[in-house]
Amino acid sequence: MKKSILLLAVIAGFIAACQQKSPEQEVDSLATAPDTTIASSKECYAYMKNRDTVSLSLSEVGNVVTGDLNYNLFEKDKNIGTLAGIVKGDTIIADYTFNAEGTSSVRQVVFLKKDGQLVEGFGPAAEENGKSVFTKLSALEFGDAVVLSPIPCK
Description:
By secondary structure, this protein is an alpha+beta fold. It has one domain. About 20% of the residues are buried.
């Protein structure tokens, strides 16, 4: 009996693994059920240029990331929020939930890990299910507009 249950569990796992999911579905499903058997790590990053600052603290468990992300850009509204997403290779794809001017919003953010830094990706976006998402992840541009460097975590 125990072998039959184990066999059914293994088969169900293979079936689930074979199903293709969009990046948004992966973010939603993985962010809600992280694998806590894998060691976690915490990293902190910052971007400071002229009067602009961006700070990010990340906790990573397996391929699931969560953290705090804050934008304080000169002459723009300050955004303070959290992110939850996944890591695919050298790319972090996450939902950023933030408050600005008393309003809560959600938008997709993507960071590329490059030379120990995180480079924010930018590209065309559209409103989908109440949040701003990139229309095509493969078309994102990772320039030098916002490059976060590692800093000691507080």
